[in-house]
């Protein structure tokens, strides 16, 4: 006898399920893309998605999760703005037997409180950025300024650690200023202005930003200070959003580490398999990270150059 499970195509088990998604906000182009992709993935799969934008406040995310639990949703997606403070609300979801999947960031909580985390290796991303800088400056003295992501978020903690690990043996490279720009363009520009004022553009060799949006804001500040971003001050960041590809194509930035905005696809596949026959995923489902530089023969930069008449 062939069981019903075998006859039902994978993907069908998620149809008509209700999933609550607590999204951080829309602080960066990457985050906006993640929201778009998540909604598209839900629609394609016939999932009823309840979307809550927290305006980057943890208390709004906790409120949203409590609302989803009260509604009795079938599952919860959570992109946790910071890594701590989740235990009690995750316990409430567990008590209600509602599986929680983390998207793009991790939490400091016992891992039995969530089904899995779908994220990139954010330490590795920092290492890739750091290694690119070590190889590029090749022994030349280099004072680096760093724009950190949201304080207390797992990517900010990890990307700082990964970058420092990569430059640890390069005594010629030093981080001389490091401050959060909260992953936004506006803050990236303001903080970069303060770095330029404090250090002098001529004394800064490179900017490492934990995401492209802060780098794009900082590029504006570098130009307004009369320096050439991508040349006088090297620019390396993470996300590979279109505006960063454009900056690289224009020679105003040098490198970025790609981060897919499609974390929801793997999450919905995991839920589908779970609803089909109780299959449980690994505790961490990792997405790929790939370096993009002007030297890469990659389509996005080629298209941008063509678009710019290069
Ligand atoms: O790099 C940034 C967003 O959590 C990894 O959050 C994500 C980061 C991403 O604000 O653009």
From TrEMBL:
The keyword Signal applies. Residues 20-262 form the Periplasmic binding protein domain. GO terms for cellular component: cell envelope. SUPFAM superfamilies: Periplasmic binding protein-like I. Keywords: Signal. CDD domains: PBP1_galactofuranose_YtfQ-like. InterPro entries: Peripla_BP_I, SBP_2_dom, YtfQ_transport. It is found in: Cell envelope. Residues 1-14 form the signal peptide. One of its GO terms (molecular function) is carbohydrate binding. Pfam families: Peripla_BP_4. It comes from the Bacteria. Belongs to the bacterial solute-binding protein 2 family. This is Monosaccharide ABC transporter substrate-binding protein, CUT2 family. It comes from Aliiruegeria lutimaris.
């Amino acid at each position: 006898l062939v069981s019903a499970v075998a006859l039902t195509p994978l993907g069908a088990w998620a149809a008509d399920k209700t999933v609550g998604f607590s999204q951080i906000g829309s602080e960066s182009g990457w985050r906006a893309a993640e929201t778009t992709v998540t909604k598209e993935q839900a629609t394609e799969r016939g999932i009823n998605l309840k979307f809550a934008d927290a305006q980057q406040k943890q208390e709004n995310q906790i409120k949203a999760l409590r609302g989803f639990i009260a509604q009795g949703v079938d599952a919860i997606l959570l992109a946790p703005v910071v890594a701590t403070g989740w235990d009690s609300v995750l316990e409430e979801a567990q008590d209600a037997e509602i599986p929680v999947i983390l998207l793009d960031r991790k939490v400091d909580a016992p891992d039995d409180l969530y089904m899995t985390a779908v994220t990139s290796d954010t330490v590795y991303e920092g290492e890739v950025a750091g290694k690119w800088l070590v190889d590029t400056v090749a022994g030349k003295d280099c004072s680096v300024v760093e724009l950190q992501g949201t304080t207390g978020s797992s990517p900010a903690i990890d990307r700082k650690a990964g970058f420092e690990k990569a430059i640890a043996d390069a005594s010629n490279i030093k981080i001389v200023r490091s401050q959060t720009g909260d992953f936004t363009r506006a803050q990236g520009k303001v903080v970069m202005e303060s770095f330029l004022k404090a250090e002098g553009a001529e004394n800064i060799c490179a900017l490492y930003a934990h995401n492209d949006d802060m780098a794009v804001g900082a590029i504006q500040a570098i130009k307004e200070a009369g320096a050439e971003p991508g040349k006088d001050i090297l620019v390396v960041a993470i996300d590979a959003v279109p505006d960063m590809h454009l900056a690289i194509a224009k020679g105003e930035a040098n490198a970025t580490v790609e981060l897919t905005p499609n974390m929801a696809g793997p999450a919905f596949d995991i839920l589908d398999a779970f609803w089909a026959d109780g299959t449980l995923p690994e505790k961490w489902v990792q997405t790929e990270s790939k370096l993009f530089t002007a030297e890469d023969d990659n389509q996005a930069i080629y298209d941008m150059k063509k678009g710019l008449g290069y």
